[in-house]
Write the structure tokens for this entry.
Amino acid sequence: MWNILGKKEHDDPVSCQTGQPINIGSRLELFTDGCLIDKMNGVELRLHHPVRREVALYFDAPWEGPWSGYVTVFEDADGYRMYYRGCNYGRDKREHTCVALSEDGIHWTRPKLGLFDFEGDRETNIVWVGQGAHAFSPFIDTNPDCKPEERYKAVAPDTGSAMGAALYAFSSPDGFKSPRATSIPTTSRSGTRFAASMFATSGCSGEEYPTASGIYAAPPRRTSSNGASPSG
């Protein structure tokens, strides 16, 4: 189970319209649009083409199915972790955040965690059920000032009627469970869409995660409804 972190309104989304250099510090930034690019000469933005490989994991557990997805994989001290949404709408309307483990990144197993049950079976690999399970994006907080009980963090968008209007932040000491949880959105901004997986890749820094107050916020980049940077 994961603890949902406290609420903070963020009044300074990254603006791409100032005409001034944007200080991104040590953050990693994806060049998915022209927001951080002043000009390009003889180059273009191009996505790499995916290459089909062998199947790593079939979503064939009873709580999984054809609606499973949103996979996040990262390396941990004891190997690799894969978090993903498990969902089988034909059998159960709930969405589940699941985890699989691997020592080599090729062969994966589902740990029997005993945290959440499915149809009476508690030997599942489900780590979260509830708000944010639709697109749960976890990562390891490498900030040296990070509290040990919050080493594993995640962000996930609201999946209510106004989907994308709020972003939730979660924490856990081990990436599996947490002693408590409170349902408080981290960021709420009307008309702004959030891509939780992109926030997760940016990592943690004091600028983005003000630990002095014990409150965490992911600063959004404001975009139009089609994902492009706004023109005004």
In short: DSSP finds one helix and nine strands in the chain. The beta strands are 3-4, 69-76, 79-86, 96-102, 126-129, 137-140, 152-157, 166-172, 187-188. The chain has one domain: 1-8+54-232.
